[in-house]
Amino acid sequence: MYDVAIIGAGVIGALTARELSRYNLKCVVLEKENDVAMGTSKANSAIVHAGFDAKEGSKKAYFNVKGSEMMEKVASELGVKYIRNGSLVLAFDDDDMKTVEELYGRGVKNGVKGLFILSREELLKVEPNIGDDAVGALHATTGAIICPYGLAIAAMGNAMDNGCELKTNFPVKNIEKGEGKYILSSENETVEATFVVNAAGLFADEINKKLEDSDFSTHPRKGEYFVMDKAQGSLVKSTVFVTPSAKGKGILVSPTVDGNLLLGPTADDIEDKTDIETTDEGAAKIRSQAMRSVKGIDMRKVITSFAGLRAVGNTGDFEITAKDNYVAAMGIESPGLSASPAIAEHIAELLFNMGLKKEENKNFNPVRRPMDFFKTLSKEEKNALIKERPSYGRIVCRCEEITEGEIIDALTLNPRAKDLDGVKRRTRSGMGRCQGGFCSPSVTELIAKISGVAYEDVTKTGEGSGINFERTKGGVKNA
């Protein structure tokens, strides 16, 4: 019997679990996929928005501004890469400049600090490679970038280190309300909990309908992206937007915390909550807008493309409700990542207000070692660690310079990676120019050895994604 069951191990569910692990509670996170951060949290713009875009008085505005102010500390504690690089909203004509002025006014009302309206001359001093058509911009100096899946993984790992449990491959098929408890069932397992948190992302509306009669619904909005080689990463320092539309903030050009350049997203309303295919139409749209915003983009430097889905609610705002020991966080689309620390804190408050016991966990440790700590060590520290653990002296991923020791950590530390993409999200092995062409066999070998499964049974991303039919020659022997 658990005190709290959280459905969904995206950034909202993971940070909520971490928040609850501050207290002496028995909590479990139920995730339908093979790993955490498998939905919107792994495929988005990786932006910590300043908070000027959301309508004043909305939940989006409130939680965005508060979450943005909290994020730097949260990222520091969890060892997650975070860079306050500032953001720009470009104007290409007088109508766009009017929109920029409106966004400035809205941002001031929302309580956003560090907002400025720039002329073209001032804009070029901030970003010399801005396109020739831009006439001015809104400059939000508190805008930032982060690794979104890294945040979810680290938050879940920190929650687990502090006593929370995680059950993957647990799709919640049924929820029954018993006397003083909820009974949550997958096809193979049942969990009982006094309180339930619905943080199921795109599927939160479907979970909600299992518990209450509600008109709230979500639909997916697909966003396609390009990731550029690190040779393009220095074209801009800021995150560069265009003036927003009803569907979103438009095609952005942004550096990533790992030194690449990110272009996208498109914004297409679809029906299929599993459709993450990229399209020629999406690629053309990204190319056209991105190259208008920033000069010098070389589309020959694209190393991969992907698509993510946002959970667009029918109310136009975040839907966060609490009733009968049940909290639902639904329609958490952009700026959901930015708002996530504040939403997690709010969910915990709602639970406590409904009677969840609030007894401090005196052993709670908010700090988690960065996954990329090895790169931050001095030469002497690296040599000392290699002497203690020789696996840190062997490079497996040459593109990103990832060691065998880091991959072993990804497979043994909470939450443990179980497949090739899980290792990639934790270490960046396979995210470089060759996109795993050289390192994947060695990583697969390590997964098989450490996880105790056959080489042929290692998957790319869980059930149904096999990558090998049979062994043809030997692999890594020194794990």
* Low-confidence runs: none
- Oligomeric grouping of the chains: single chain
CATH architectural designation of the largest domain: 3-Layer(bba) Sandwich
Number of strands: 22
Tell me the domain tally: 3
CATH superfamily of the largest domain: FAD/NAD(P)-binding domain
At the fold tier of CATH, the topology name of the largest domain is FAD/NAD(P)-binding domain
Relevant terms:
single chain, alpha+beta, D-Amino Acid Oxidase, Chain A, domain 2, Arc Repressor Mutant, subunit A, 3 domains, eight-stranded mixed sheet, five-stranded antiparallel sheet, 31% helix
Kindly describe this structure:
The mean pLDDT is 96. Helix content is 31%, strand content 22%. The protein has three domains: 1-81 and 145-217 and 314-369, FAD/NAD(P)-binding domain; 87-141 and 220-309, D-Amino Acid Oxidase, subunit A, domain 2 (D-Amino Acid Oxidase, Chain A, domain 2, 2-Layer Sandwich); 373-457, Arc Repressor Mutant, subunit A. It has 479 residues and is α+β, with helices and mostly antiparallel strands. Helix 1 packs parallel to helix 5 (148-161), helix 1 (11-20) crosses helix 8 and helix 2 packs across helix 8 (336-353).
Topology:
Layout: E1 2-7, H1 11-20, E2 27-30, E3 47-48, H2 59-78, E4 82-83, E5 87-91, H3 94-110, E6 115-119, H4 120-126, E7 136-140, E8 144-146, H5 148-161, E9 165-167, E10 174-178, E11 181-185, E12 190-198, H6 204-209, E13 218-228, E14 239-242, E15 252-255, E16 261-264, E17 268-269, H7 280-293, E18 302-313, E19 319-323, E20 326-330, H8 336-353, H9 373-376, H10 379-388, E21 395-397, E22 402-403, H11 404-412, H12 420-427, H13 440-451
Parallel strand pairs: 1-2, 1-12, 2-9, 5-14, 12-20
Antiparallel strand pairs: 3-8, 4-8, 5-7, 6-7, 10-11, 11-12, 13-16, 13-17, 13-18, 15-16, 19-20, 21-22
Helix pairs in contact: 1-5, 1-8, 2-8, 11-12, 11-13
